[in-house]
From TrEMBL:
Domain DUF4131 intervals: 71-225
InterPro entries with a match to the protein in the record: ComEC_N, Competence_DNA_uptake, DUF4131
Protein name from the UniProt record: ComEC/Rec2 family competence protein
Span of domain ComEC/Rec2-related protein: 270-551
A Pfam family: Competence
Localization: Cell membrane
Membrane-spanning parts: 51-68, 74-93, 100-121, 293-316, 328-346, 397-416, 437-459, 465-491, 500-519, 531-549
Amino acid sequence: MIAHMVSDVPQEKGLEPGDAALQRPWRKAVQLSSVLATANDFLADRGFERVPWLAIALGTGIVVWFVLGQPWQWVATIAIALLCAASAGYYWRERQGREYLSVAITGLGIALALGVALIWVRSELVGAAPLSRPAVVTIDGRVLAREDQPALDRTRLTLAYRDAGSGAPRKVRVNVPTSAMLDDIEDGARISLRARLIPPSPPLLPGSYNFARTAWFNGLAATGSLIGEIELLEKPPPSRWDIGRIQRALSQHVRHQVDGSPGAIAATFVSGDRSAIGANDENAMRDAGLTHLLSISGLHVSAVMAAAYLLLIRLLALWPWLALRVRLPLVATCIAAGAGVGYTLLTGAQVPTVRSCAAALLVLGAMALGREPLSLRIVAVAAVCVMLLWPETVVGPSFQMSFAAVVAIVALHRSAPVQRFMAPREEGVIRRSGRRITMLLITGLVIEIALMPIVLLHFHRAGIYGAIANVFAIPLVTFISMPLIAVALLFDVFELGAPFWWLAGHSLDLLLAIAHFTAEQSGAVKLMPQMGAMTFALFVVGGLWLALWQGRLRLYGLAPAAAGTIALLATPTPDLLITSDGRQVGIVGEGDRLLLLRDSKSAFLRDNLLEMAGTEGEPLPLDRWPGARCSREFCTVTLRRGERDWHLLLARGRTLVAERALAAACARSDIVIADRWLPRSCGPQWIKADRRLLSRTGGLTINLETGTVTTVAQSQGAHGWWPQRSR
């Protein structure tokens, strides 16, 4: 009809239908109205749940606050979101053909604004300003938390004290060697010690782990290490129900019953304490895609609740008087919920555990009410609960991996092809078992695909064979290891748990064997140095579209996922990696090994540089590379990138150099890098990355072929954890 009206309009002489003179505003209004009507009809015709979309909008608002760096941008985002919500609610509230759009825009706008405001308020309430510089201080304070780390031969104490100079309260974390630790130091004790404190470290390089941000939301002003000895000034108040003390006692008891790495993993399942797991075993679990088994999450909480539910309902059914008068599923549900909450508190109440506990409680509630227990609405409600309590976790790997896995599982099992495949039918045990094993393998593969962008973003590496390893590892842990550990703890009351501990230890030996075998296979790990924010956003949009819609419409989510894959594969590896202090420089692309300016003994530094370079194997010191000319003070390197040579001058010593000689060397170089202030006479042809520049920008990555320089400061903005680096 609109097209017919347009065709009846008389054409002005000498003008064509597409000329600008014929473009009247009312035509644009008609087209816009048609688009809005189409969008409203689209929402009306598609059955979908609103809660997941509101949860996504809330999380998007939180992410927007982290991405935008200035307060005026946060205010503008809140204002625009609320304006859109108010406008849609006011103008379209009673208009025919706009009711679905009105509800959608109003709800999403309010949720988005709430997300920005929520994380902003959270940052202002809990954020702690970091120390301005490293310092040696004497601390007289209270122990807030004690974390034993036997694998690292130390104990980590979180302390609260008042600064002697300013009187300001501070919260710090101090590493204490096991030999200097006192047994009487528990949560609540008052102690005195001297410690060397440093401000929480910002990202080493663009895209690296941001400990400063984590410390900010944990209220930590500094971290450090003990100097000398600890003096116990006041013992902690007596408490029989101290969760931290019970957690440590359980962990020590389990490790005493089962030796070595199996005991450390068993202690993790019981108390959430991962501190005794060796680095080799933890790396093998990571590369095999089994790290989620070490993080108390949905698998463990669900197993505990399911075991409690089934055991109780069977036992209660043996009491006829109760079975005839009380609804047993409701009673078993309440007791199973209590078991899940207790297990969550006992294992430290980490984000994955809280999320899993909340989701499991909702599932139990749905079962008790006779509702559908497996739905995205339940997952969304659990996500909202976590975001309201800890909104900062949205940008962390734990939250993202936890919810991505659960959403993938629910979406897969609710899809029509899977429901047809798993529908009950008349068949033998072998065929039924084959279908279940096939479904388990498909589920593991889908989870690996869903988690791979998240793992690559945060850890720059992902296990390729994780789906196959999980087919064997998940049933082993769920149906053998955890039940054996639970029975062993129960029989320990009567000092009869030794046989069950022996069986549990051998089952965990098998788990470690699966992890090491998988991790050692060729191509088991995929390294990816960097993933841009837009690339990750494409994966998120594609994954959520696939999960939240039904029917063929969901297949459109493959388009952004494919675009994200292409963008990821096309992301170039930087040629130069420069740490924030300028002491370490990594050169990528000269052979299959990373070249380092200094031979560092820091495993953390070396691993970060290797991950950002996308290179495996030991790095090579620059002075051993034939293409470099090094003295005690400087190294000169020429790199061929694209169609030109790049000349680098890298400082490696601290002895003063004649200014004229330094100026001449700088003039011959394209890039000069130093961990100290260089004189103004040092003028390279492109970049002088000395202490003056790096103190403002943080770490750098440089792509020589494209001339792209990426800094840590670009992603920090005016957030509290990023200090003003004007010095």
